[in-house]
Backbone:
């Protein structure tokens, strides 16, 4: 389950070379920053609504949409999900090395 | 840089046992779902504003806030970040096994 | 310029009798509360983006979209824009009777 | 119930002359555009949550908050609520002249 964000970032980087009509991501880049940001606002609201509906599958689905469009923003800005993860690591004093512990469980 | 979300999820799980006045996360759980959801809406807007300001450090900071409060929602709902990552993996047909490539770098 | 909200509320009330495919408003009622709420989240984000772009015409356009979808929510809940205006009047201790003063200007 | 928005706009205009620590509105102007926009995002989310809770009094309260901060944005941009009302009038082909009908009621 690890590396998914890094793999997705790599896919999003590749899509930058593509024509706007070849993929949804390429069309987002072509439409530009405002369109990406509108999607972030939209998907945040849909996550809120799914949570108020108490629909766990829908929460996961909408949060995937939200994180995905966040990833598109990062790519568009030449940032990486690791920048965000590093910030979270710093704030919560996380080791980033729990793999062994994870395996033990 | 991997495992950060899983480590953070583990921290958030532990905080469920704590009294509301011992940590910010414990106070969020005590205030309940609506407070967590308000933070998601708030941080999404702050991410949009940071992006419009073209301030990369601020984008990372606000997106860390956004993902963090998403993680709190997942914990509150007894969901895991892996549920969201699995959904992204499924959608984008990602292997989840790029660890070796990562190590080579 | 007065009475616009009240007139619009009256139009929105009439649309409740219409079939979903006869107007945008009727289709919103048919799709239900979540769709109306998504639009409120969406238009709030678009208002923020327009303001960050410093585009006054776009701010007005997006805020009209936002207030309009708020009005649809009020109608769907059998509330009136006067309920919101009354709350603002109460908070700010407004007379609601500045018509004469307005004419003098 | 009419003229409330125009009266409120007049109050908001007066507050521009005040020091930041004399009123909430003056402090919003002093903190600047981003703070006003964050409040719009925040209050939109709170309106959504109130509606999902089916709490009509709370919907009115949060929507008053949302419209109020929209009014502060308009004032900050030297725009008027009439600009937004005119846009709604244009879109929905409203007369803006229902005053007589209102008096008859």
Residues:
């Amino acid at each position: 389950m690890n590396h998914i964000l890094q793999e997705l970032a790599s896919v999003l980087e590749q899509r930058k070379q593509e024509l706007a009509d070849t993929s949804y991501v390429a069309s987002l880049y072509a439409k530009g920053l405002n369109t990406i940001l509108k999607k972030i606002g939209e998907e945040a609201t849909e996550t809120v609504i799914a949570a108020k509906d108490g629909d766990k599958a829908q929460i996961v689905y909408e949060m995937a949409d939200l994180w995905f469009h966040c990833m598109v923003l990062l790519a568009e800005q030449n940032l990486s999900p690791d920048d965000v993860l590093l910030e979270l690591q710093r704030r919560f004093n996380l080791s980033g090395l729990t793999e062994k512990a994870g395996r033990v469980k």
The longest helix of chain A spans residues 56-76. Helices of chain A lie at 4-15, 24-31, 33-52, 56-76, 81-92, 99-104.
